[in-house]
Amino acid sequence: MFADIVSRAGYGEVVPPILEDIGVFARLGEQTDVVTKEMYDFVDKGGRHVALRPEQTASVARLFVEHRPTLPFRAWYSGPNFRYEKPQKGRYRQFDQCGVEALGSSDPDLDIEVISLAWDFFAALGLQHVDLVVNSLGEPTDRAAFTDALGRFAASRADELSEAGRTTLEKNPLRLLDSKRADDIAVMADAPTIDEYWSPTARDHHDAVLQGLHALGIPVIEDRRLVRGLDYYRFTTFEFRSPALDGAQNAIGGGGRYDGLVEDLGGPPTPGVGFALGVERTLLACDAEEVGRIHGPQADVFVVDTSTSGAALRISTALRRAGYRCERSYDHRSMKSQMKAADRAGATLALIVGEDEAASDTVLVRDMRHDSPQSLVHQTDVVEYIRQVLTPQSDV
Ligand code: AMP
């Protein structure tokens, strides 16, 4: 479903490697938790310092630098990431993300496009309660001036901060804004806000993004404290939160503009914007809202075979090759148990082969949807018969 939505908008799939040179991720920022504390890194047998990817944006930027595709380059990915975290509900050491990156344009329309793709994906899953929180970190100079001001402010109230908060203050005052500790929250409530430092360009960009989202009917919650984990963000930052989930783990996705990353990785100055959605958390949100339950595909046909003629193997193979979803039982179960399994599989038709049918090379076709009379069909005609009754599934 994710692939459908993003490929309709022209995003092509990329498959970044799970193992990368540590340098690719070190660029995410010296002060970033993902780099300093959460990376699974090691020296391999050849003496190379490598890491299991903690996220995929840096790898997409790295492959962009190596292959220099035409601009704008728009790509999507999905797959596992690894972070050394304290595992708990919604926070794992191996977790899946799917995401998009759009490189090569500063047009605010692209910020709006990527946000709306994620929004549409959550809606397509059936999630009713997703909050979109948006902020802007301004241009790098705005962000630097704001970080300085924040540092000065927090230093003036350092004795009221938590001990961990004082360490954060020394390393990166910006991170104090998303501290979950009560002491830090109380102090930071009085802190200066980033919008006081936005340049006219940053303000215009932000206004354009808000207007575009409004025009698409996507509601926005503005939060000046949204700074997000990675150091490379500029201008727009956003997060999707599920109010149905526990506060600390309620972010089901997030992203933003990262106009400096490609350059940091040795490429030409190239603006970029993207998001990553947490797959497990999104599924938790679906569970919490009791929507989007993902059922396995329903079977078109279930072959119930109580004979010893091998009919189940032959018929199910022939039907699968013809494009039908076909299931069967194993281990010579009783008729009753195989019929129950056909029910559970949601099969439209049951093809029944007992010893009598096996002896005459026939099958009894029962329509599981309604109580219509059963038909007896010769086994060689089964595929053709099913073709007349059902339309093959094309989205396998
Ligand atoms: P990030 O790459 O940190 O911006 O994270 C993007 C999204 O990935 C978050 O909003 C979460 O939904 C998900 N995520 C991040 N870290 C984890 C984790 N350790 N376990 C599960 N999901 C995670």
Give the helices and strands, then pairings.
Blueprint: H1 2-8, E1 12-13, E2 19-21, H2 22-26, H3 33-36, E3 40-43, E4 49-52, H4 57-67, E5 73-82, E6 94-103, H5 108-125, E7 131-136, H6 140-156, H7 163-171, H8 182-188, H9 200-215, E8 221-222, E9 234-241, E10 251-257, H10 261-264, E11 272-278, H11 279-289, E12 301-305, H12 311-321, E13 326-328, H13 335-344, E14 349-353, H14 355-359, E15 362-367, E16 375-378, H15 382-389
Parallel strand pairs: 1-5, 7-8, 12-13, 12-14
Antiparallel strand pairs: 2-4, 3-4, 5-6, 6-11, 7-9, 9-10, 10-11, 14-15, 15-16
Helix pairs in contact: 5-9
Adenosine monophosphate is lined by residues 55, 83, 85, 90-92, 95, 97, 229, 251-254, 276, 278, 280-281.
Q: In percent, how much strand structure appears in the residues? A: 15-25%
Strand order of the largest sheet: 1-5-6-11-10-9-7-8
Report low-confidence residues grouped into runs of 5 or more. Answer: 392-396
Indicate the mean pLDDT. 91
Report how far the terminal alpha carbons are from each other. 12 Å
Task: Walk me through the structure.
Helix content is 36%, strand content 22%. The protein has helices at 2-8, 22-26, 33-36, 57-67, 108-125, 140-156, 163-171, 182-188, 200-215, 261-264, 279-289, 311-321, 335-344, 355-359, 382-389, and strands at 12-13, 19-21, 40-43, 49-52, 73-82, 94-103, 131-136, 221-222, 234-241, 251-257, 272-278, 301-305, 326-328, 349-353, 362-367, 375-378. The strands form three sheets. It has an eight-stranded mixed beta sheet, sandwiched between helices. Helix 12 links the parallel strand 12 (301-305) and strand 13. Helix 5 (108-125) runs parallel beside helix 9. The model is unreliable at 392-396 (pLDDT under 50). The protein binds adenosine monophosphate. Adenosine monophosphate (AMP) binds next to strand 6, strand 10, strand 11 and helix 11. Residues 55, 83, 85, 90-92, 95, 97, 229, 251-254, 276, 278, 280-281 line the site of adenosine monophosphate (AMP).
